Amino acid sequence: MKIDQLLPLILCGGTGSRLWPLSRESYPKQYLNLIEDSSKTLLQQTIERLSGIANQEDPILICNEEHRFIVAEQLRAINVKPKKIILEPFARNTAPAIAIAALKALENGSDPILFVLASDHLIKDNQQFIKSIKAAKDFAAKGNLVTFGIIPTSPEVGYGYIESIEPLEVDSFIASPISKFIEKPDIEKAKKLVSDPRYTWNSGMFLFRASVYLKELEKFSPQVLKSCKKALKENLLDMDFQRLDKKAFKDCPDISIDFAVMEKTRSGVVLPLNVGWSDIGSWKSIWDVSKKDDNGNVITGNVITKDINDCYIRSESRLVVGLGIENLLIVETNDAILISHKNHDQDVKQIVNQLIEENRAEGKSHRKVYRPWGHYTSVVEGSRWQVKRIEVNPEASLSLQMHHHRAEHWIVVKGTAKVEVNDENLILGENQSVYIPLGSRHRLINPGRIPLVLIEVQSGAYLREDDIVRFDDIYGRDNNK
Q: Please, what is the angle between helix 210-220 and helix 94-105, to 10°?
Protein backbone atom coordinates (compact mmCIF):
# COMPACT_ATOMS: atom_id res chain seq x y z
CA MET A 1 0.00 0.00 0.00
CA LYS A 2 1.40 3.36 -1.06
CA ILE A 3 1.83 5.85 1.79
CA ASP A 4 0.89 9.41 0.98
CA GLN A 5 3.69 11.90 1.49
CA LEU A 6 2.93 15.11 3.36
CA LEU A 7 4.45 18.26 1.88
CA PRO A 8 4.48 21.24 4.28
CA LEU A 9 3.88 24.58 2.59
CA ILE A 10 4.79 27.52 4.81
CA LEU A 11 3.42 30.91 3.84
CA CYS A 12 5.78 33.67 4.97
CA GLY A 13 3.91 36.71 3.67
CA GLY A 14 2.35 39.46 5.74
CA THR A 15 3.83 42.37 7.64
CA GLY A 16 2.29 41.91 11.10
CA SER A 17 1.50 45.62 11.29
CA ARG A 18 -0.52 45.29 14.51
CA LEU A 19 2.76 44.34 16.21
CA TRP A 20 4.40 47.63 15.29
CA PRO A 21 6.88 49.05 16.22
CA LEU A 22 8.73 45.72 16.53
CA SER A 23 7.22 44.12 13.41
CA ARG A 24 7.64 46.15 10.24
CA GLU A 25 7.56 45.56 6.51
CA SER A 26 11.34 45.24 6.34
CA TYR A 27 11.43 42.61 9.13
CA PRO A 28 7.93 41.29 9.97
CA LYS A 29 6.80 39.25 12.94
CA GLN A 30 7.38 35.77 11.50
CA TYR A 31 11.13 36.40 11.65
CA LEU A 32 11.08 37.65 15.25
CA ASN A 33 11.30 35.90 18.60
CA LEU A 34 8.24 37.23 20.39
CA ILE A 35 7.65 34.55 23.03
CA GLU A 36 9.97 34.55 26.04
CA ASP A 37 9.98 30.78 26.66
CA SER A 38 11.57 30.07 23.25
CA SER A 39 14.86 31.13 21.70
CA LYS A 40 13.48 30.55 18.19
CA THR A 41 11.64 32.86 15.82
CA LEU A 42 8.02 32.15 14.91
CA LEU A 43 9.12 30.76 11.54
CA GLN A 44 11.65 28.44 13.17
CA GLN A 45 9.06 27.25 15.69
CA THR A 46 6.61 26.55 12.84
CA ILE A 47 9.12 24.31 11.10
CA GLU A 48 10.32 22.52 14.22
CA ARG A 49 6.81 21.56 15.38
CA LEU A 50 6.47 19.46 12.21
CA SER A 51 9.36 17.18 13.21
CA GLY A 52 7.07 14.57 14.79
CA ILE A 53 5.13 13.92 11.58
CA ALA A 54 6.04 10.78 9.64
CA ASN A 55 6.31 10.52 5.84
CA GLN A 56 6.86 14.18 5.11
CA GLU A 57 8.94 15.87 2.46
CA ASP A 58 11.21 18.86 2.96
CA PRO A 59 9.07 22.01 3.17
CA ILE A 60 8.32 24.58 0.49
CA LEU A 61 8.39 28.18 1.71
CA ILE A 62 6.90 31.17 -0.08
CA CYS A 63 8.12 34.63 0.89
CA ASN A 64 8.57 38.15 -0.38
CA GLU A 65 11.75 38.39 -2.43
CA GLU A 66 13.07 41.11 -0.09
CA HIS A 67 13.05 38.61 2.79
CA ARG A 68 14.74 35.74 0.96
CA PHE A 69 18.05 35.94 2.79
CA ILE A 70 16.33 36.24 6.17
CA VAL A 71 14.39 33.04 5.44
CA ALA A 72 17.45 31.20 4.17
CA GLU A 73 19.53 32.20 7.20
CA GLN A 74 16.84 31.22 9.71
CA LEU A 75 16.49 27.80 8.07
CA ARG A 76 20.25 27.33 8.06
CA ALA A 77 20.37 28.17 11.77
CA ILE A 78 18.09 25.19 12.58
CA ASN A 79 19.72 22.87 10.00
CA VAL A 80 16.69 22.67 7.69
CA LYS A 81 17.15 22.40 3.93
CA PRO A 82 13.91 23.29 2.17
CA LYS A 83 12.60 21.65 -0.96
CA LYS A 84 12.23 25.12 -2.43
CA ILE A 85 12.05 28.78 -1.39
CA ILE A 86 9.70 30.52 -3.83
CA LEU A 87 9.96 34.30 -4.10
CA GLU A 88 6.90 36.46 -4.70
CA PRO A 89 7.75 39.77 -6.43
CA PHE A 90 4.63 41.18 -4.75
CA ALA A 91 1.84 39.76 -2.61
CA ARG A 92 -1.17 38.22 -4.32
CA ASN A 93 -2.81 36.61 -1.27
CA THR A 94 -3.08 32.92 -0.38
CA ALA A 95 -4.89 31.35 -3.37
CA PRO A 96 -2.08 32.11 -5.88
CA ALA A 97 0.68 31.28 -3.39
CA ILE A 98 -0.81 27.85 -2.73
CA ALA A 99 -1.38 27.30 -6.46
CA ILE A 100 2.30 27.98 -7.19
CA ALA A 101 3.36 25.45 -4.55
CA ALA A 102 0.84 22.85 -5.76
CA LEU A 103 2.15 23.18 -9.32
CA LYS A 104 5.73 22.73 -8.10
CA ALA A 105 4.66 19.70 -6.05
CA LEU A 106 3.34 17.97 -9.16
CA GLU A 107 6.44 18.59 -11.29
CA ASN A 108 8.17 15.29 -10.54
CA GLY A 109 5.07 13.17 -11.13
CA SER A 110 4.04 12.79 -7.49
CA ASP A 111 0.83 14.13 -5.95
CA PRO A 112 1.54 14.80 -2.27
CA ILE A 113 -0.86 16.04 0.34
CA LEU A 114 -0.11 19.71 0.94
CA PHE A 115 -0.19 20.99 4.50
CA VAL A 116 -0.62 24.75 4.24
CA LEU A 117 0.29 26.72 7.34
CA ALA A 118 1.26 30.23 8.27
CA SER A 119 4.74 31.00 9.54
CA ASP A 120 3.63 33.21 12.41
CA HIS A 121 1.26 31.21 14.60
CA LEU A 122 1.77 29.82 18.10
CA ILE A 123 0.69 26.29 19.06
CA LYS A 124 1.24 25.13 22.63
CA ASP A 125 0.06 21.49 22.51
CA ASN A 126 2.24 19.99 19.81
CA GLN A 127 1.24 16.36 20.45
CA GLN A 128 -2.43 17.17 19.96
CA PHE A 129 -1.50 19.18 16.88
CA ILE A 130 0.24 16.19 15.28
CA LYS A 131 -2.74 13.94 16.06
CA SER A 132 -5.02 16.44 14.33
CA ILE A 133 -2.80 16.49 11.24
CA LYS A 134 -2.89 12.69 11.02
CA ALA A 135 -6.67 12.74 11.24
CA ALA A 136 -6.92 15.47 8.61
CA LYS A 137 -4.64 13.52 6.31
CA ASP A 138 -7.17 10.66 6.21
CA PHE A 139 -9.90 13.09 5.11
CA ALA A 140 -7.62 14.67 2.51
CA ALA A 141 -6.72 11.26 1.07
CA LYS A 142 -10.43 10.82 0.27
CA GLY A 143 -10.49 13.99 -1.83
CA ASN A 144 -11.57 16.52 0.79
CA LEU A 145 -10.15 20.00 1.22
CA VAL A 146 -9.62 20.19 4.97
CA THR A 147 -9.40 23.39 6.96
CA PHE A 148 -8.76 23.56 10.69
CA GLY A 149 -11.28 25.33 12.91
CA ILE A 150 -9.97 26.56 16.24
CA ILE A 151 -12.23 25.85 19.20
CA PRO A 152 -13.08 29.37 20.46
CA THR A 153 -12.13 30.39 23.99
CA SER A 154 -13.69 33.87 23.86
CA PRO A 155 -15.81 36.06 21.57
CA GLU A 156 -13.03 37.43 19.36
CA VAL A 157 -13.69 40.14 16.77
CA GLY A 158 -10.23 39.85 15.19
CA TYR A 159 -10.85 36.41 13.64
CA GLY A 160 -13.07 35.10 10.88
CA TYR A 161 -15.34 32.16 11.76
CA ILE A 162 -16.34 28.90 10.06
CA GLU A 163 -19.82 27.44 10.36
CA SER A 164 -19.93 23.64 10.08
CA ILE A 165 -23.01 21.64 9.15
CA GLU A 166 -22.60 19.35 12.15
CA PRO A 167 -21.63 20.43 15.70
CA LEU A 168 -17.91 19.90 16.29
CA GLU A 169 -16.75 17.93 19.29
CA VAL A 170 -13.54 18.98 21.00
CA ASP A 171 -10.71 16.45 20.50
CA SER A 172 -12.94 14.20 18.38
CA PHE A 173 -10.72 14.40 15.26
CA ILE A 174 -13.90 14.19 13.20
CA ALA A 175 -14.43 16.71 10.40
CA SER A 176 -17.76 18.15 9.29
CA PRO A 177 -18.74 19.61 5.90
CA ILE A 178 -18.49 23.39 5.84
CA SER A 179 -21.69 25.42 5.74
CA LYS A 180 -20.15 28.87 5.27
CA PHE A 181 -17.37 31.27 6.18
CA ILE A 182 -18.09 34.37 8.25
CA GLU A 183 -16.06 37.59 8.13
CA LYS A 184 -14.80 39.17 11.34
CA PRO A 185 -17.96 39.91 13.39
CA ASP A 186 -18.80 42.65 15.85
CA ILE A 187 -18.69 41.77 19.54
CA GLU A 188 -22.41 40.99 19.89
CA LYS A 189 -22.36 38.58 16.96
CA ALA A 190 -19.14 37.02 18.21
CA LYS A 191 -20.79 36.25 21.57
CA LYS A 192 -23.58 34.37 19.79
CA LEU A 193 -21.18 32.44 17.58
CA VAL A 194 -18.95 31.12 20.38
CA SER A 195 -21.97 29.71 22.22
CA ASP A 196 -22.78 27.42 19.27
CA PRO A 197 -20.57 24.28 18.76
CA ARG A 198 -20.92 24.63 14.98
CA TYR A 199 -18.70 27.73 14.92
CA THR A 200 -14.92 27.82 15.09
CA TRP A 201 -12.25 30.41 14.43
CA ASN A 202 -10.76 30.30 10.94
CA SER A 203 -7.12 29.27 11.48
CA GLY A 204 -5.97 29.76 7.89
CA MET A 205 -4.42 26.27 7.87
CA PHE A 206 -5.38 23.71 5.21
CA LEU A 207 -4.61 20.17 4.18
CA PHE A 208 -5.45 18.64 0.78
CA ARG A 209 -3.97 16.79 -2.15
CA ALA A 210 -2.17 19.11 -4.57
CA SER A 211 -4.14 17.92 -7.61
CA VAL A 212 -7.48 18.28 -5.83
CA TYR A 213 -6.78 21.91 -4.96
CA LEU A 214 -5.74 22.73 -8.52
CA LYS A 215 -8.84 21.02 -9.91
CA GLU A 216 -11.13 23.06 -7.67
CA LEU A 217 -9.16 26.24 -8.41
CA GLU A 218 -9.57 25.68 -12.16
CA LYS A 219 -13.30 25.21 -11.64
CA PHE A 220 -13.94 28.29 -9.49
CA SER A 221 -11.03 30.70 -10.15
CA PRO A 222 -9.47 29.71 -13.49
CA GLN A 223 -7.66 33.03 -13.98
CA VAL A 224 -5.62 32.42 -10.83
CA LEU A 225 -4.43 29.05 -12.12
CA LYS A 226 -3.72 30.41 -15.61
CA SER A 227 -1.59 33.26 -14.24
CA CYS A 228 0.31 30.97 -11.87
CA LYS A 229 1.16 28.54 -14.66
CA LYS A 230 2.51 31.43 -16.73
CA ALA A 231 4.50 32.72 -13.76
CA LEU A 232 6.22 29.34 -13.46
CA LYS A 233 6.67 28.77 -17.20
CA GLU A 234 10.20 30.12 -17.17
CA ASN A 235 12.43 28.24 -14.75
CA LEU A 236 13.82 31.36 -13.06
CA LEU A 237 16.31 29.99 -10.57
CA ASP A 238 18.36 32.41 -8.47
CA MET A 239 20.89 30.52 -6.34
CA ASP A 240 18.67 28.43 -4.00
CA PHE A 241 15.55 30.44 -4.80
CA GLN A 242 12.73 30.03 -7.32
CA ARG A 243 11.64 33.33 -8.83
CA LEU A 244 8.34 33.99 -10.58
CA ASP A 245 7.77 35.82 -13.85
CA LYS A 246 6.81 39.31 -12.65
CA LYS A 247 4.51 40.25 -15.52
CA ALA A 248 2.52 37.02 -15.36
CA PHE A 249 2.23 37.14 -11.57
CA LYS A 250 1.22 40.80 -11.62
CA ASP A 251 -1.79 39.83 -13.77
CA CYS A 252 -2.86 37.24 -11.20
CA PRO A 253 -5.98 38.10 -9.15
CA ASP A 254 -5.29 39.12 -5.55
CA ILE A 255 -7.57 36.67 -3.74
CA SER A 256 -7.57 34.42 -0.68
CA ILE A 257 -8.10 30.68 -0.79
CA ASP A 258 -11.35 31.18 1.15
CA PHE A 259 -12.88 33.39 -1.56
CA ALA A 260 -11.29 31.57 -4.49
CA VAL A 261 -12.10 27.99 -3.50
CA MET A 262 -13.25 27.14 0.01
CA GLU A 263 -16.48 29.15 -0.03
CA LYS A 264 -17.51 27.55 -3.34
CA THR A 265 -16.34 23.95 -3.24
CA ARG A 266 -18.53 21.08 -2.10
CA SER A 267 -15.46 19.17 -0.90
CA GLY A 268 -14.56 21.47 1.99
CA VAL A 269 -14.60 20.10 5.54
CA VAL A 270 -13.54 21.61 8.86
CA LEU A 271 -11.68 19.66 11.54
CA PRO A 272 -11.77 20.98 15.13
CA LEU A 273 -8.41 22.02 16.53
CA ASN A 274 -7.86 22.46 20.27
CA VAL A 275 -4.12 22.97 20.67
CA GLY A 276 -3.57 26.29 22.45
CA TRP A 277 -3.48 28.18 19.14
CA SER A 278 -2.89 31.90 18.67
CA ASP A 279 -2.17 33.86 15.52
CA ILE A 280 0.01 36.24 17.59
CA GLY A 281 -1.80 39.01 15.75
CA SER A 282 -1.54 41.82 18.30
CA TRP A 283 0.30 42.86 21.44
CA LYS A 284 -2.69 41.89 23.55
CA SER A 285 -2.57 38.36 22.08
CA ILE A 286 1.10 38.15 23.07
CA TRP A 287 0.17 39.28 26.58
CA ASP A 288 -2.58 36.62 26.61
CA VAL A 289 -0.20 33.72 25.83
CA SER A 290 2.85 34.89 27.81
CA LYS A 291 3.83 33.92 31.34
CA LYS A 292 2.78 36.68 33.76
CA ASP A 293 3.94 37.80 37.18
CA ASP A 294 1.68 37.86 40.26
CA ASN A 295 0.15 41.16 39.12
CA GLY A 296 -0.66 40.00 35.61
CA ASN A 297 2.28 41.79 33.98
CA VAL A 298 4.56 40.64 31.17
CA ILE A 299 7.91 42.44 31.35
CA THR A 300 10.68 42.07 28.77
CA GLY A 301 14.00 43.87 28.51
CA ASN A 302 15.34 46.92 30.33
CA VAL A 303 12.25 47.75 32.44
CA ILE A 304 11.66 48.96 36.02
CA THR A 305 8.12 48.99 37.43
CA LYS A 306 6.19 49.84 40.59
CA ASP A 307 2.48 49.38 41.32
CA ILE A 308 1.45 48.23 37.84
CA ASN A 309 -1.16 45.63 36.88
CA ASP A 310 -2.09 43.64 33.78
CA CYS A 311 0.45 45.41 31.55
CA TYR A 312 2.74 44.35 28.73
CA ILE A 313 6.01 46.32 28.72
CA ARG A 314 8.84 45.52 26.31
CA SER A 315 12.11 47.41 25.93
CA GLU A 316 14.46 46.71 23.04
CA SER A 317 17.11 49.31 23.94
CA ARG A 318 16.41 52.12 26.43
CA LEU A 319 15.29 51.96 30.05
CA VAL A 320 11.50 52.03 30.39
CA VAL A 321 9.96 52.87 33.79
CA GLY A 322 6.29 52.18 34.57
CA LEU A 323 4.60 53.60 37.69
CA GLY A 324 0.99 53.21 38.86
CA ILE A 325 -0.46 52.03 35.54
CA GLU A 326 -2.70 49.18 34.43
CA ASN A 327 -3.98 47.52 31.25
CA LEU A 328 -1.36 49.22 29.08
CA LEU A 329 0.77 47.97 26.20
CA ILE A 330 4.18 49.66 26.03
CA VAL A 331 6.71 48.63 23.38
CA GLU A 332 9.99 50.52 22.93
CA THR A 333 12.43 50.29 20.01
CA ASN A 334 15.36 52.57 19.21
CA ASP A 335 13.23 54.81 16.98
CA ALA A 336 9.63 54.50 18.22
CA ILE A 337 7.52 53.86 21.33
CA LEU A 338 3.99 52.44 21.36
CA ILE A 339 1.74 53.23 24.34
CA SER A 340 -1.77 51.80 24.06
CA HIS A 341 -4.62 50.57 26.21
CA LYS A 342 -5.04 46.83 25.67
CA ASN A 343 -8.56 47.38 24.34
CA HIS A 344 -7.12 49.42 21.45
CA ASP A 345 -4.57 46.86 20.26
CA GLN A 346 -6.41 46.34 16.96
CA ASP A 347 -6.01 50.05 16.14
CA VAL A 348 -2.23 49.87 15.81
CA LYS A 349 -2.61 48.92 12.14
CA GLN A 350 -4.33 52.26 11.47
CA ILE A 351 -1.35 54.13 12.90
CA VAL A 352 1.02 52.15 10.68
CA ASN A 353 -1.11 53.03 7.64
CA GLN A 354 -0.91 56.69 8.66
CA LEU A 355 2.89 56.52 8.95
CA ILE A 356 3.13 54.96 5.50
CA GLU A 357 0.81 57.59 3.99
CA GLU A 358 3.05 60.28 5.50
CA ASN A 359 6.08 58.50 4.02
CA ARG A 360 7.69 58.11 7.42
CA ALA A 361 10.48 55.55 7.61
CA GLU A 362 9.23 54.27 10.98
CA GLY A 363 6.18 52.81 9.23
CA LYS A 364 8.21 50.36 7.12
CA SER A 365 11.80 50.02 8.24
CA HIS A 366 13.85 49.57 11.37
CA ARG A 367 17.05 51.44 11.97
CA LYS A 368 18.59 47.97 11.99
CA VAL A 369 18.47 46.56 8.45
CA TYR A 370 19.39 42.99 7.54
CA ARG A 371 21.34 42.05 4.44
CA PRO A 372 22.63 38.66 3.20
CA TRP A 373 26.11 39.58 4.41
CA GLY A 374 25.01 40.74 7.89
CA HIS A 375 23.29 43.96 8.99
CA TYR A 376 23.70 47.66 9.56
CA THR A 377 22.19 50.09 12.07
CA SER A 378 21.63 53.80 11.48
CA VAL A 379 23.07 55.53 14.55
CA VAL A 380 22.61 59.22 13.86
CA GLU A 381 22.15 61.44 10.82
CA GLY A 382 22.02 65.02 9.62
CA SER A 383 21.01 66.69 6.36
CA ARG A 384 24.29 65.82 4.56
CA TRP A 385 25.84 63.14 6.77
CA GLN A 386 24.99 59.82 8.43
CA VAL A 387 26.69 57.38 10.82
CA LYS A 388 26.06 53.64 10.63
CA ARG A 389 27.29 50.60 12.53
CA ILE A 390 27.99 47.78 10.05
CA GLU A 391 28.45 44.12 10.99
CA VAL A 392 29.65 41.67 8.33
CA ASN A 393 29.37 37.91 8.89
CA PRO A 394 32.53 35.77 8.76
CA GLU A 395 33.69 35.13 5.18
CA ALA A 396 30.89 37.32 3.81
CA SER A 397 31.23 40.12 1.28
CA LEU A 398 29.37 43.25 0.24
CA SER A 399 28.93 43.85 -3.48
CA LEU A 400 31.44 45.66 -5.69
CA GLN A 401 29.66 49.02 -5.94
CA MET A 402 29.87 52.77 -6.28
CA HIS A 403 27.81 55.82 -5.23
CA HIS A 404 27.08 58.93 -7.28
CA HIS A 405 26.27 61.25 -4.39
CA ARG A 406 28.16 60.22 -1.27
CA ALA A 407 31.63 59.47 0.05
CA GLU A 408 32.28 57.04 2.90
CA HIS A 409 34.78 56.69 5.73
CA TRP A 410 35.15 53.25 7.36
CA ILE A 411 36.67 52.70 10.82
CA VAL A 412 37.22 49.08 11.93
CA VAL A 413 36.34 48.47 15.59
CA LYS A 414 36.38 44.65 15.63
CA GLY A 415 37.81 41.98 13.37
CA THR A 416 39.68 42.28 10.08
CA ALA A 417 38.50 43.98 6.89
CA LYS A 418 39.64 43.42 3.34
CA VAL A 419 38.83 46.54 1.33
CA GLU A 420 38.94 47.05 -2.43
CA VAL A 421 39.01 50.69 -3.62
CA ASN A 422 39.33 51.03 -7.38
CA ASP A 423 42.48 49.01 -8.15
CA GLU A 424 43.90 49.03 -4.60
CA ASN A 425 43.50 46.21 -2.02
CA LEU A 426 43.87 46.94 1.70
CA ILE A 427 43.83 44.86 4.89
CA LEU A 428 42.60 46.81 7.93
CA GLY A 429 42.68 45.80 11.59
CA GLU A 430 41.04 47.32 14.64
CA ASN A 431 41.31 51.13 14.93
CA GLN A 432 42.40 51.47 11.31
CA SER A 433 40.35 53.33 8.70
CA VAL A 434 39.95 54.01 4.99
CA TYR A 435 38.32 56.79 2.95
CA ILE A 436 36.12 55.90 -0.04
CA PRO A 437 35.85 58.92 -2.37
CA LEU A 438 32.59 59.65 -4.18
CA GLY A 439 32.37 57.68 -7.43
CA SER A 440 34.97 55.04 -6.44
CA ARG A 441 34.40 51.36 -7.09
CA HIS A 442 34.71 49.62 -3.73
CA ARG A 443 33.99 46.41 -1.89
CA LEU A 444 34.11 45.34 1.78
CA ILE A 445 35.00 41.72 2.68
CA ASN A 446 35.31 39.93 6.02
CA PRO A 447 38.07 37.35 5.45
CA GLY A 448 38.09 36.23 9.08
CA ARG A 449 36.17 33.80 11.27
CA ILE A 450 34.64 36.36 13.63
CA PRO A 451 32.14 39.12 12.79
CA LEU A 452 33.63 42.29 11.34
CA VAL A 453 32.28 45.46 12.98
CA LEU A 454 32.97 48.91 11.62
CA ILE A 455 31.62 52.44 11.83
CA GLU A 456 30.69 54.05 8.52
CA VAL A 457 30.48 57.83 8.18
CA GLN A 458 28.66 58.92 5.01
CA SER A 459 28.76 62.46 3.65
CA GLY A 460 27.12 63.91 0.57
CA ALA A 461 24.09 65.55 -0.96
CA TYR A 462 22.01 62.34 -1.10
CA LEU A 463 22.30 59.46 1.41
CA ARG A 464 19.43 57.09 0.55
CA GLU A 465 20.08 53.39 -0.12
CA ASP A 466 18.99 53.68 -3.74
CA ASP A 467 22.27 55.47 -4.56
CA ILE A 468 24.01 52.17 -5.28
CA VAL A 469 25.37 50.91 -8.60
CA ARG A 470 26.39 47.25 -8.35
CA PHE A 471 29.03 45.79 -10.64
CA ASP A 472 29.32 42.37 -9.00
CA ASP A 473 27.38 40.65 -6.21
CA ILE A 474 27.78 37.08 -4.95
CA TYR A 475 24.13 37.08 -3.79
CA GLY A 476 22.69 37.90 -7.22
CA ARG A 477 21.10 41.18 -6.10
CA ASP A 478 20.10 44.04 -8.35
CA ASN A 479 20.80 47.63 -7.39
CA ASN A 480 19.30 49.08 -4.20
CA LYS A 481 18.74 45.74 -2.40
A: 130
Q: CA 325, CA 272: separation in Å to the nearest integer? A: 39
Quick: pLDDT tens for 33-72. Answer: 998 778 899 999 999 999 888 889 999 999 998 898 899 9
Cα separation, 329 vs 331, in Å, equals 7
Beta bridge partners of 10: 61, 117
> In sequence order, what E strands does 334-451 have?
337-341, 368-371, 374-381, 385-392, 400-402, 406-414, 417-421, 424-428, 433-436, 442-445
Rounded-to-integer distance, Cα 100 and Cα 228, Å: 6
Tell the CATH topology of 368-472. Answer: Jelly Rolls (2.60.120)
- List the domain boundaries for the chain: 6-278, 283-351, 368-472
The sign of the CA dihedral 293, 296, 299, 304 is negative
**6-278 and 368-472 in the same fold:** no
Predicted confidence (pLDDT) per residue in 15-37, tens digit: 889 999 999 998 999 999 998 77
**d(C-alpha 144, C-alpha 469), whole Å:** 51
Report d(CA 337, CA 328) in Å as an integer.
13
**CATH fold for domain 6-278:** Spore Coat Polysaccharide Biosynthesis Protein SpsA; Chain A (3.90.550)
- The model scores a pTM over 0.90: no
Are 173 and 135 in contact by the 8 Å Cβ rule? The answer is yes
User: Residues 6 or more apart from 183 whose CB is under 8 A from it?
Assistant: 160
Distance in angstroms between the alpha carbons of the first and the last residue of the chain? 49
| CA distance to 214, 382, 438, 465, per residue, from 386 (Å) | 51, 6, 15, 12
Instruction: Point out which residues pair with 242 in neighbouring strands.
Output: 86, 237
Q: Are 81 and 47 in contact (CB under 8 A)?
A: no
